[in-house]
Design a protein that fits this description.
Radius of gyration: 17 Å
CATH superfamily: Vaccinia Virus protein VP39
Pfam families: Methyltransf_11
Keywords: Methyltransferase, Transferase
CATH class: Alpha Beta
Family: Belongs to the methyltransferase superfamily.
Shape: globular
CATH topology: Rossmann fold
Number of strands: 9
Distance between the termini: 34 Å
Number of helices: 10
Oligomer: single chain
GO molecular function, one term: S-adenosylmethionine-dependent methyltransferase activity
Helix content: 25-40%
Order of helices and strands: HHHEHEHEEHEHEEHEHHE
Protein name: Methyltransferase domain-containing protein
Strand order of the largest sheet: 3-2-1-4-5-9-8
Length: about 230
Amino acid sequence: MTSGDMYERFAHEYAAHAEDSAYNAYYDRPALLGLAGDVAGLTVFDAACGPGLYARELLDRGARVLGCDASPTFVELARERTGGRADLRVHDLTKPLTWVEDGTADLVVLALAVHYFDDRVALLRELRRVLTPSGALVLSTEHPMATWLRLGGSYFTTEPVEESLSAEHEWPIRAWRRPLTVTVAEFREAGFYIDELLEPRPAPEMATRYPDDHARLEQSPGFMAFRLRPLP
């Protein structure tokens, strides 16, 4: 089952939630788009684009955006949100991006999705293929410490886990828990080195909107984000 299959069941609910939620709007998006830097004039591939929240921001910052998601509902919502300004397609990222030529993207964005894939190295290699030699991949994923604090057991466990995406909603997902060592090894095996690692701090606005989440994330990270560069 792909992430698109999982999210398709609650795509509209999640899209409405993510627009203004604590962890999406005031934590992950600011962090990942900050790592992306100045995108004006760049070609950006939004992998697992979801309902188009990152794509819209990238377009507003002057990027040319193409991307995909396995969920048809997400792609429909993303096209609506971006007003037809982006080339967004229904595509399962477990399969090659046959419609994207080698070395055509200056930047690839992969937000909160890599942990859904069984073969993460294959995915990362395909994303590396579409990058220019001087390009970058920015991605975010759950911090392994947050996973360990929630699930217990050994921090070093590498296994898929089935749970709800949200404590408030019945949104079943299947995602991989793994220690930082495994994540970094997969980056290198796929042909990347880490240019920057970010353990985000919550946006200041979260303190007013979601004070409990803000206090929690000021004490312990929920996500981590990376800017990766292709190895020579």
